[in-house]
Amino acid sequence: MKKITKILFYVASLGVNFAYSQNTIYADTVLGVSSEWSVCPNNWSSCKILGAPDVYPNCGDLPGSWSFSATNNSTFPHPREWIEIGYNTQYYVDSINVYQTNHSGLIDTIYFRDAQTGTWNIVFSDTAIFNSSCDVFRLGIPTTLYKVDAVRLAISGNYTSLYPEFDAVALIGSVTSVINEQEASKTVIFPNPSNGQLTIKTEGKGTSTFTIFDVFGNVVLSQKLTQETENILVNISAGVYVSVIENKGEKITNKLIIQ
Predict the structure, then answer these.
(1) Between 241 and 148, whose confidence is greater?
(2) Which fold has domain 4-174?
């Protein structure tokens, strides 16, 4: 697996969408898998995670979903499991839905692959909490600044049932960039990286809202911009953030590095 970027932008629920138009796509191919109950195209094989949900909202030990091999699940704690799935259509992604049809809550890390560089970026990482029911894991993030062509799900071994099952993985986003290039050319944030002193130019855009999110989706700064050029001091810890400039429903998203 290629270089993994350990920090990206995880937001559990922002209540807003950063893409101009949203579409949903489902996985087209299995790139790799830790284990599977049977070989494709048989029941409970890895290829059952492809395409739109065809089991959910039905729940239980049902043959149309991917499940792990019996050998790997014969001991406790179980080995960690993972699956990598590819998408023929490449999207700038702002949401992912994972349809878990039997014993949910075991996903502890999600990666997106940058279609251009092949880099795997972590977009979610948290402690898995086992749930005996089925569920849809829904994750919203600031729209990726790169097109996504693959997803890797990493799954905790901390469960008692032998049969966690996964039906489908949906990506929601847009084939076009979240950044309107003409408007982006009129908007400049510098320096970047910065020691906290920023100059923001929003030529001809009128009153805008400038917001900075940390890696957990918390708003660390939000203020109005009323001048075409404004100097602001950002008093936050060094790290990687997401900045969003919003004006009349349009949003320009950038990665912001504070040193």
Answers:
(1) 148
(2) Jelly Rolls (2.60.120)
